[in-house]
Amino acid sequence: MKSDITIIGGGAAGLLAALGAAKQFESSPVGGTVTILEKQQNIGRKIMVTGKGRCNFTNVKPWEEFAAHIRAGRQLVDPAWHSLTPDDIIALLKANGMPSVVERGDRAFPASHLSGDVVDALRRAATIAGVKIVSGCKVDSIEYNGKIFRLACTQTTVKEFGRKPGPVRTETTTEQVSFASNRLILATGGLSYPWTGSDGDGYRFAESLGIAHTELSPSLTALVPAGYKETDLTGYIERRTPLSQKGELFNGNNLDNVRLSLFIDGSLSHEEFGDIEFTDGGLEGPLGFAVSRDAVKALIRGGKVSVKIDLKPSVELEKLDEDIHGRWEEIVRDPRSRGASFRKLFRILLGKLMPWELTLAFLGDNPSVSVDSLAGMLKDWKMDIAGYVGYERAVVTAGGISSDEVVAKTLESRKIPGLYFAGELLDVDADTGGYNLHCAFSTGWLAGRSAASSLNE
Question: Does the pTM of the predicted model rise above 0.90?
Answer without folding.
Answer: yes
